[in-house]
Amino acid sequence: MNYSKVSVMLAVVTLLVTGCSGGTGGTGGNPLPPIGNGDLSVGAVTKLGSVFVNGVEFDTTGATITRDGITVAESQVLGMPVEVRGDINGDMGTADTVVAKTAVKGTVNSIISTTSLVVMGQTVRLEDGAYIETLANGSSGTLADLSVGSLVEVAGMPKPGGVIVATRLEEKTSLVEYKVKGYIEGTISATTFTIGALTIDYSSADMTDLPGGPVLNLLVEVKASAAPAPVMMATKVEPEGPSISDAQEAEVEGYVKGLTGSSPDYVFFINGQEVHTDSATIFEGATATYFAENVKVEAEGTLVADVLNAYKVKLKDSVRMEGDIENLSGNSFNLVGMPGVTITVNAATEINSSTDVFSDFANGSHVRLRGFPSSGTSVLVTRIDERNTGDPDAYLRGPVDSVAGTVVTVLGIAIDVNGFSFKDHDDVSMNQAAFLAALSTGVPVKIQGLISGSSITWDSAELED
Q: pLDDT tier at 2 (50, 70, 90 boundaries)?
């Protein structure tokens, strides 16, 4: 990564501290995406058979695929955030290189619940459908197979506060190196800084790529040759972000960090990449209502001199739903018990069914899907999975529209949560008052229930990342 990004991040942090909120006059907003060689896509691999990243199917014939610097097969990067360099043409692409990196390599400090644990001082929260591989049960493993002291490699996207939203976790018998990727937060001294709950001593580390030293709120990767005891003795510290400074077409997925400016002129960072928007930028789902710090987005645009000038910013897979299809017409439908939400698939939707075509689905089909709000109460589907017909489970996961007393509205569906069971981000029980106090417009929640005839009996709710 070009070190100029570090300087820009420091400038953005300074703006945040001093309260500046003026527009940036960003140069984003190209009305049409350029096509050609030298394109870049940064996001999670959602499907194999080629690799699917950010809705683009990349042909990997002849491509070099690496994981933490070692050449691997495609199957070893499923679910991992990757950097793909090559050519993008609409929803198809040709990859020259696919570079995957883990976010944490180290020892398990504690297991919080069935979906979260602490590794090397970082809170790891499993994404829905995260791939888990353990020594005891292989790819059918769960967190119950692990214990304090287990060695794991975790792939996922970092958030402030030492949180990793994980898409892949593998238990290992040994580790050649220990690693943490995250934001520098807390106090920086002449020899130490912190990422999450982990203190890092960089006094003997290779700082070649960080000549100015640690910078508050900077995304970095830290490596060590031994486990923390309890301080991590770093052997190398380097800033994180895309490896190139210019690309004709760039797509970057991750959580918004360091947001400054005002609509439509924003400056923010996604996984270490600086992004600018302006009046020509199209916001899909990421309207002023939902676009904020820590929201997961995908920005598309042109990368010039380390800045991604965005012509599109999309609220990334913020909606998750499960239920039975009804009112199927063409490529649109509703789910039983959620009739007010119009759900639409398109040519870019990833379909997982018996033959992987949308015609496999019919009224009554039980499905899980993910997507983003395209407008109001309409959802554009990025992925749909066929489930067992007759399964009564249903859920709605999305950003909160509003909260009035105990009534929580998501995608226009008003649900009274009074008397529900509640869980926090780490799947730990919490009381109703604490749950409601944690809510505001844009905060993602998941509300679950059971299908009963033409309706849903909702009974539980939890906070989501």
A: very low
Q: pLDDT value at position 32?
A: 37
- In tens, the pLDDT along 10-61 reads 444 333 333 333 333 333 333 334 334 489 888 888 888 788 888 888 999 9
The CA distance from 281 to 263, in Å, is: 10
- Does the structure show a pLDDT above 80 at 228? yes
pLDDT at residue 214 tops 90: yes
Sketch out the chain's domains with CATH numbers: 9-29+254-315 (2.40.50), 36-100 (2.40.50), 104-239 (no CATH), 319-463 (2.40.50.320)
- Which residue reads 């990368």 in tokens? 303
pLDDT at 441 over 90: no
Q: What are the tens digits of pLDDT across the range 345-382?
A: 988 788 888 898 999 999 999 999 988 887 668 888 88
pTM: predicted TM-score of the whole model, two decimal places: 0.76
pLDDT of residue 288: 56
Burial class (CB in 10 A: 0-12, 13-18, 19+), 36: exposed
